[in-house]
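Pair request: fold both.
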Amino acid sequence: MDRKKRIRTYSGTKDSRPTEREWKNRQIARRAAAEGIVLLKNEGALPLKKGEKAALFGGGAVSTVKGGTGSGDVNEREVVSIYQGFLDAGIALTDQEWLEEYGRIYRQAREDWKNAILAEAGRRGNNRFFEVYSTNVFHMPSGSPIKKECLEEADAAFYVISRTAGEDADRFLQQGDYYLTEEEKAELSYLDACCERVIVILNTGGPIDLQEILKLSHLKGLLSIVQPGMEGGHALADIVTGRVTPSGKLSSTWAAAYSDIPGSGDYSHNNGNVEKEYYMEGIYIGYRYFDSFGKKAAYPFGFGLSYTDFSIETNAILPEETGEISVTVTVRNTGNVWAGREVVQIYASCPQAGLEKEYRRLCGFAKTKLLAPGEKEELSIRIQAKNLASFSETKAAWIVEKGQYGVWVGNSSNNLEIVGVLEVDADTVIESVKHILPLQEKLHELECPEAVRLEREKAWKADAAERGLLPVKYVPAAEQVRTYSEPEAKKEARELTEKLTQEQQIAMVIGEVAKGQGQALGSAGIMVPGAAGETSGCLEESYGVPGVPMADGPAGIRLMKSYEVDRTTGGINNQGIFGAVEGGIFADHTPHANTDIYYQYATAFPVGTLLAQTWDPALLEETGRAVAAEMEEFGVGWWLAPGMNIHRNPLCGRNFEYYSEDPLLSGCMAAAITRGVQSCNGVGTTIKHFACNNQEDNRMGCDSIVSERALREIYLRGFEIAVKAAQPMAIMTSYNLINGVHTANSRDLCTVAAREEWNFQGIIMTDWTTTMPRGGSSSWGCIAAGNDLIMPGGEGDRENIRKALKDGTLAEEDLKACVERMLTVIFQTNAYENSVPYGTRF
């Protein structure tokens, strides 16, 4: 194929005014945030009636937390706070003086925090800046005391509780983090005593303890807005005023108390051991535990209120010849005032006679269109046989065991009605596989007593019989992994690989050594300032293969807001890591003479958890297309997103990036956003972090001790769904070990699971600095495992691979295979002008 290399120019524009793309993408971000906001409690408090006045308190009202810190951050033009959103919506506020004063307090606190970070980084050495930054999270300052006169004319009092977290550090069971501060408790108590209508807004990346909040006698409303991106203030105002009827549903369980979570006391730093993390809860994660062990949650998985009511009627449950099951339901808006949307959730109870199983599992879902009062819609939801299967470690196979399967339909994990029974006559192997990542030490997993499981199974069967539900024969079919024809790009990549010298081959599996955060201008062209890295440009002059830039995510692309270009030399001043985080507040913004300023404002979309709370794959596809438009505009080929690790514990510092505690929901959301991105020319996603990246403390050295069954059913299943449904361009391995093996060096993960079992067609890359000297992975081990690209790359990686090739530790065939995969995907990126959507291949 005749490939024409894209002409690389300076990314962004010298015009600082907002663009049409910015405006369009902000509207998508606003809609996505509103669709994901979950109304947890509403006793006539919302929506506000026209003309009602409100008081608004809490630090997050003025400085709403849009997202988490670290690589998941986005440097947007501005963030619409809740305060600003309320004003723009015309909500009369009775405490504007308090809010304005808090703004001044906040700005001073941020300045003091910034100076403290820079001073500490200076003492430790600026090469340790990110470590200092990530482990010293900014906390909201105290505001002035609430005055009673601010409340006298208010019809409702809103109180915002905000939290932030990020990569490289987990959260803590401390006040100001998982627990309320004394000030927050005192202010809520005061509002409770003075107001008849208190509404609490949770602006937190993950769950916090709700016990003190739920005790308030005048708590009439409670909303989870997570971290809603740059349009969060407008999105919340849309909900509060009734412009949008809430339709979000929780993507993870909110426990009544932290101690209710299995293994909570031993998580991460809680037991003082961050070297090994024992996944003793096995398959009992989130609602699977709460439902199976009869634990009552504060708010269950899948829960969310609306301003209207819905009925859900199941029409038919039909096993298909394909081995799938079709469930058809009719949803009706039974209210008479508000239009709204409902999420239909389908769960299955599997037989307990063989393998131990959770009480119920999510196996399908769909969201309605906007239904007017009295309007109805019929939905057809297809359930794959594998969603009913369990993994047998004894047989190394996914099996749908014989017995009866209860089918439940409802709108949350604890609001379900049994609507059908499927009967399987014989154990059916859906897929036989090789064993991967065996345990290296004894792991005592949580077990639900057999008597409890059988008694609950007996109860649902009796319920089904009482409803007259007769078992329907179901014959599950073995899973057929889709095969793909070889693209022209692969043939070209194979031919070129054979022409390359060994040094060129080594260079192609390592990121561009000369293009770190501090130096953006190199031989391959002009790197996108603020981009996370770039593939090697060593073949540009000889073979016309340019480097491909990649940018962080997953709440949007992370680039510099602006950078300078010297008019004489063409050199770039981008401030390095100091300009990349927190909107560049740590950078020196003193203007230089003889320079042009280029602007590259990106959209801060809602974080992953809030996107998942929409339960709306079509909306995530639209979000993906919006991200792709920015990738194309700025010349980015790979988006290092979406993040899709499981919400194993609410203290994981990076949970805000991830979707859910449930692998089906996670996989469907990741597949949707991937389809959206990859429907556009030459751009792709990188699903991460593969796998078990469930804690941040000692993230490069922590060993996740997990059974193969739990690994496959919980922690790999979402990745599997995303790969099979959407074929992302790339997968990124995680920092941690699994059962003694660094994931970046795991052939079981990269080759056996991803490529041999799932038929993954793209490339696999490491997370940044996974290899020595900072990380624990070996460079040659990455290549041997099938991990194609070491990022960001260094001379030490080259030397390590050279030595391994020379002494025979690394086979030349493994290196060539990685190079061939790299070139195959590079040829399909927007590095070339005639690129087409990667998704059209699949």
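--- second member of the pair ---
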Amino acid sequence: MKELDLLKKDWQKNASSFQQISENEIYKMIHRKSSSIVKWILIISILEISFWTLSNFFINTDDFLRKIKHPEMIITIEYLNYFNGLVGLIFVYIFYKNYTTISTTVATRSLMSAILRTRKTVQYYVWYNLGMLIVSSIFSFFIAFVYNPDMDFFREKLAANGKAMFVTIGLLFLVILGFFGLFWCFYRVIYGTLLRRLYANYKELKKIDF
């Protein structure tokens, strides 16, 4: 017992030498980290959308569209591009709103709710882009195969050979799956890392709040 009493006295004597961090200071630190993470999500999404928008100006599709000779397909492609751009801008606006909310909120539970809302928004954004990748790939291959006159000879060969048609569809599926895997890895590394850090902040806030 004497040894235990001496140990308690020694601990109490040295406790003042350790830096004590209050819950308020922990909250401020988590607040700054969360705001920084959401800011990077906003920046990366803007850079990503800007990259795809600018790439459309450098990729010349006019010759291909002229070969199609089906105005309804050209209009569909244009509407699809406009729709995709509009949805991208909506997501950027939501990311910006999430950033301003997290940057200005002062209540712990409000910050926790904003973090969860931001995570869901990013997840929706990622799955939307992956879904559009699949839709755009299938649509592009369909137009190139059905409406491109340069594919007439190839279509006749496939129509005469069922096995070749099956192999072509299989290769098309593998190509789309490969693109899906590449983009999924990109989103997993970039956005996934940021979301894991954001969720770690949420768990720390949960310890403070409860």
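Observation on the second member. Confidence is low (pLDDT under 50) at residues 15-20.
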